[in-house]
């Protein structure tokens, strides 16, 4: 809804509400009942959905009709999410030279687990597992210094919260247990079926032949959990230097302010949801089973970009736009090279041997894209347009990503480790690891030069 008010200028007020309910139903299983991870040894790691045997502590329940298959190898969950939001905004035009926009959006998100999920006391969970209230302010200012509509100086700020997907309710809030075990490939009743091989006792340490992840209870949620958001700042100036030509300089700054992560301090046996790196939250630090307290680094992802542009409006049967953007993307998420190993429960590339980004950065990249077009008036009612797009004109072939798997052996992290500590790395069995010979080699390059031609008939 909107309405107009005259008060020291022209005001246009906008306001509204919206509400939604989303349902998510999913059944999950592994082909053959389990995932099998090949390893360069005589043992093979297996993981599948299942649950503990109440009559035999520390052991899973197997399907009585198929002793090689875990019971409960298919998990089915139905979750839902309810959100209600409202917003109000005022666009104030002051003396036809300045426009001030200010507003706020408030959003409530409630996320519910599957009805089979139990709390820590063994009772069914009925309350919302995720309960977030997000406040998103917005403000912007536009000034026409010519007073004739030929210029624009502007700046704006906005906070944008991410809508947490329902997959989190399925994977974290709802009941889900996975069982891991290791098979001895030298003792199999059917060499063609790894599941028939004998299970290696104590494969995960003394008294740990099987490992269980998850359970009938949901993942714990930090009582002080807050939503994930990004702050965005925009600014720039545009000026009409000729009757149909405008030049401009525009600046964009984006930075992530908070993230929501599932975290663990016991090597993935149990998890909790929190905001890493924030004081007063469970995710600020964690104490491992060996007594080491580790302060989680605050997530950082910063984008800065400056765009120079020139444009000609459609006059005399032609138009033109050209721009150049210089940008940088910094932080401790993408673009960093890490030393990865296999996790004993989740497989290759799932364990950080050293702190994230210890391997440095991928190379700086750039490319030049060009676009041209022409429009022709065929008659009073028909027009024909052609476009030509050229991508990566200089045919740059810089490396975009590299192989970060230092080893495919299952390992534990070297807490606060350095590159110089890698020679002492051992697998979970205490043996020297086999280093991946492809480590740090390129896995993706910039796409080569390409062109695209387009035609459009308008009427």
What does this structure look like?
The chain is mostly beta strands and 459 residues long. It has one domain (2-325). Helix content is 2%, strand content 54%. It contains one helix and 32 strands. The strands form nine sheets. A ten-stranded antiparallel β-sheet has the order 1-2-9-10-11-12-17-18-23-24. A hairpin with a 2-residue loop joins strand 5 and strand 6 (56-60). The longest helix is centred in the middle third of the chain and has 7 residues, at 167-173.
Main pleated-sheet profile: 10 strands, antiparallel
The gross shape turns out to be globular
> What is the tally of helical segments?
1
Number of domains: 1
Number of strands: 32
What topology emerges from the helices and strands here?
Blueprint: E1 2-6, E2 10-28, E3 35-37, E4 43-49, E5 52-53, E6 56-60, E7 62-63, E8 66-70, E9 75-94, E10 98-112, E11 130-143, E12 151-161, H1 167-173, E13 176-188, E14 197-199, E15 211-215, E16 220-221, E17 229-242, E18 245-258, E19 261-263, E20 272-274, E21 285-287, E22 293-295, E23 301-315, E24 318-331, E25 340-343, E26 347-352, E27 370-377, E28 383-391, E29 399-402, E30 405-410, E31 442-445, E32 450-458
Parallel strand pairs: 16-20, 25-30
Antiparallel strand pairs: 1-2, 2-9, 3-4, 4-13, 5-6, 7-8, 9-10, 10-11, 11-12, 12-17, 13-14, 13-15, 17-18, 18-23, 19-20, 21-22, 23-24, 25-26, 27-28, 28-32, 29-31
């Amino acid at each position: 809804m909107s309405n107009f008010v005259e008060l020291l200028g022209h005001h246009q007020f906008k306001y509204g509400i919206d509400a939604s309910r989303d349902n998510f139903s999913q059944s999950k299983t592994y082909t053959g009942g389990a995932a099998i991870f090949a390893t360069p040894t005589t043992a093979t790691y297996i993981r599948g959905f299942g649950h503990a045997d109440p009559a035999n502590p520390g052991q899973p329940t197997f399907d009585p009709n198929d002793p090689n298959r875990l019971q409960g190898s298919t998990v089915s969950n139905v979750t839902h999410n309810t959100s209600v939001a409202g917003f109000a905004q005022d666009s104030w035009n002051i003396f036809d030279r300045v426009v001030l926009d200010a507003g706020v959006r408030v959003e409530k998100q409630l996320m519910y687990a599957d009805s089979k999920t139990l709390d820590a006391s063994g009772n069914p969970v009925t309350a919302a597992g995720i309960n977030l209230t997000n406040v998103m302010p917005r403000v912007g200012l536009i000034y026409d210094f010519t007073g004739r509509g030929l210029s624009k100086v502007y700046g704006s700020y906005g906070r944008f919260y991410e809508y947490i997907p329902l997959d989190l309710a399925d994977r974290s809030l709802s009941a889900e247990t996975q069982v891991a075990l290791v098979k001895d490939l030298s003792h199999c009743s059917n060499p063609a079926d790894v599941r028939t091989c004998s299970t290696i006792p104590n494969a995960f340490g003394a008294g740990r032949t099987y490992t269980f992840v998850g359970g009938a209870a949901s993942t714990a949620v930090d009582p002080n959990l807050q939503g994930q958001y990004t702050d965005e700042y925009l600014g720039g100036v545009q000026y009409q230097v000729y009757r149909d030509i405008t030049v401009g300089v525009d600046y964009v700054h984006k930075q992530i302010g908070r993230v929501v992560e599932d975290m663990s301090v016991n090597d993935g046996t149990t998890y909790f949801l929190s905001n890493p790196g924030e004081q007063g939250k469970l995710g600020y630090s964690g104490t491992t089973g060996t007594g080491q307290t580790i302060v989680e680094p605050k997530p950082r992802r910063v984008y800065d970009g400056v765009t120079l542009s020139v444009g000609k409006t459609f006059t005399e049967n032609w138009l033109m736009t050209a721009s150049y953007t210089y940008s940088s993307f910094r932080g401790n998420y993408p673009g960093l090279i890490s030393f990865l190993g296999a996790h004993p429960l989740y497989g290759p590339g799932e364990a950080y041997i050293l702190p994230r980004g210890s391997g440095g950065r991928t190379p700086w990249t750039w490319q030049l894209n060009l676009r041209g077009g022409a429009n022709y008036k065929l008659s009073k009612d028909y027009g024909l347009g052609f476009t030509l797009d050229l991508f990566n004109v200089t045919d740059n072939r810089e490396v975009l990503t590299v192989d970060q798997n230092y080893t495919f052996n299952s390992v534990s992290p070297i807490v606060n480790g350095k590159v110089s500590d890698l020679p002492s790395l051992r697998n979970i069995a205490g043996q020297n690891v086999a280093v991946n010979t492809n480590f740090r080699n390129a896995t993706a390059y910039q796409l080569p030069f390409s062109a695209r031609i387009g035609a459009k008939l308008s009427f």
